[in-house]
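Weekly puzzle thread! Below is a chain. First person to post its structure in token form gets bragging rights.
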Amino acid sequence: MRRALWVMVAVIAAAACGCASQQKHADSLTRGLRSYHEGLRWRAFEKSAIFVPAAERAGFLDAHDAIREDLRIDEYSIRRVIYGPKTETADVRVEYAWHLDSRGIVEKTVVAQKWELRGESWLLIDEVRVRGEPMPTIPEPAAEPGTEPAADPGNAPAVEPATEPAVEPGTAPAVEPATGAGAALK
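Winning reply:
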């Protein structure tokens, strides 16, 4: 009986240590998410870059420096955090309200991020826009096989507005006879 009691105590202690470790990882991610997004919001990109894998940091900093004077993140909201096994991975949804100074239009974008615990540090492994307006520095979702990629509205050719044919003063435009299903109603 005594031995069974000690085994139960050992199992409970091990479970408590596991829960404490998972809580520590969750707290660490919460701090990391806040630091990363605050760095983006206040254009302290070097602060955010420490949460990007070392091999990708230079590209991250170059992309953000290129848009530094135009992109403004007005606010962000962590909408959802779903932890993987042992809380060593996490899928995060973030909603940004942002604008470009050059346009002055506030946009909203929802981004899916994948975070991974490597050693003692959480790193942003991947992110992609899932809803809202395309946002500078945020990758677009990959096109489904067999579909055409969506056109970039920012690079679309300008469409000339339709113009009415010129009518000289004092004359009425020609009216064509009605045809089709709507003709019977007249």
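Puzzle host: Confirmed. Bonus trivia for everyone else. The beta strands are 71-83, 89-100, 107-118, 121-132.
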